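By convention, each integer encodes one residue's backbone shape. The lines below illustrate.
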Amino acid sequence: MERKGRVEGKVALITGVAKPDSIGFATAKVFAREGAMLAIVDIAEAVHACADQLRGEGFTVSSHTADLTKMEQVKKAVGEVLTCYGRVDVLVNNAGMVVFGQEEDFTAFQDLTEESWDFGIAINLKTQFNVTRCVVPHMIAQKYGRIVNVSSVTGPVVANPDESAYCAAKAGVLGMTRGLALDVAKFGITANAVGPGWIQTGSTVEGEDVGGENTPLGRSAYPEEVGKVVCFLGSDDASYITGQLIVVDGGNTIQEYKGPSDLYY
């Protein structure tokens, strides 16, 4: 008998899917392999090429562009998804960190401008609010939904220098997730967050590989390893889990010493 996929027949809206070597694309592929119909959204036109690649593998995918910091554009994109599929069963808020084609901003707190702070909060937290706010009423109407917000270990658990805005936003994602989980639980909707640690993606910068090498598992994660956790939380296998942060960091945050293991462990 053919195995039924973990999210077979579900409609999954996933944001931040414009790079083939990203968490977003890997997550979309995991959901597709597990039987979901996909709606992928990104600010970059490259989202359409990602959709073409997924459709080339036989998956059902629609693609949509929107600046997720702008509520009117989000409303339009969500409306397109609802027109295409009639519903959204799973929402994955993955977009954040940087705008496609831009470099991540590393600035000490004392040197941050108000504009840089506002941008960091907008791209990493407001985007998730905007999309969730547009999708949740439809989930309430159908009395079912799975919401998975991609946070980070950076902010909720640990911090990095020169990333105060990012830390604040990703910690805010967890706070929003927990408040949301309480508000929507009675409608059959769960809301959880995933906290990736060192991940080997196309945006990995020099030094992050070393961080991954010094985790207990001795390497950075592959994007698909995050995607599989997201898919689990987006499935009915996680029906009694809500308001939680699931850390995917190879054990990095449980160790006090984070240098080369041969010098201590």
Remarks:
- The longest helix spans residues 114-142.
- The longest strand covers residues 189-196.
